[in-house]
Amino acid sequence: MTLAWLVLLAVTPAPAGELEYAPAAAIVEKARGAWFRKVVSREGSAFEGLEAWGVLPEPAFDPAREHAAAPGEDAYKTGPLDRPDVYLGLHADGAEVDAGLIWDHVYGADGRDTGEFAYRVYWRTSKGGWQNPAVGAPDNLYLRPGDRFAPTLRALPDGSARLAVRRAGTDGAGAGYQFPVPGLLAADGSLKPLSFKRVHSIDQFRLENGRRRGNEGRPALATGTTLRGGRWEGAHLLRADGTRAALAGGRAVVARGVDAAGRYGDVFPAAGVGKGGAEEMRILPPRS
Predict the structure, then answer these.
(1) Of 31, 67, 184, 267, which one has the fewest beta carbons inside 10 Å?
(2) Which of 53, 60, 62 is nearest to 198 (CA)?
(3) What are the structural domains of the chain?
């Protein structure tokens, strides 16, 4: 999914969804290449972070969109061309972060690919590229469909960000990750005005000459891959003084990708933000 996810000066107003609890809706023309459901806070200096919690969704993959790495292609590119992605993010003028859990290969403690897939921690910035915890490291967390999860993303005064991910349950595994975010600070050293987002999506790849390529910036692709059974149970914006406010109502904008805008209710039949930021996760992309 493109990191140019919120250019509010360039959005076209769209009718608010009947199920939404007050958030406005806008079509983000430049956000293409994936089937995503995105709720974004309004930009300002009142909040420094976002926390959310819920249950991870179950993907069902289109067998026609599986890829085996071509000769000379990296082995990790084998697998589905549709990637479920459940994450948080932040935006400032000149700085963006996506951070959360994405469908990926499961690597064992010895660093070898186990042949399985699960949700794996990741983060990326607009100027720093894509990162995962090191393969085999204790903080290289994997979560499964149906797991309860709780991510938190904060902007820090030194211009870095901190992602924390926790799995609820018998082991309660969790870890934190801090990383620099170029462009997050203003000239006086303070944090720039920020907006935050929570997203569930089916990110996509396309094939070119038999090799996997990113689909960002291109039209989203028809697929039989679906995402069901997950939910955001809540999403709260975080103030520096420790108080919270739900990412809902007048604090939020539903940012719709142009690919889904004309059939939004069919692609996201469970769309509807509750008072505490709650929402079912269900994505049913067009098959043709």
Answers:
(1) 67
(2) 53
(3) 8-98+146-283 (2.60.120)
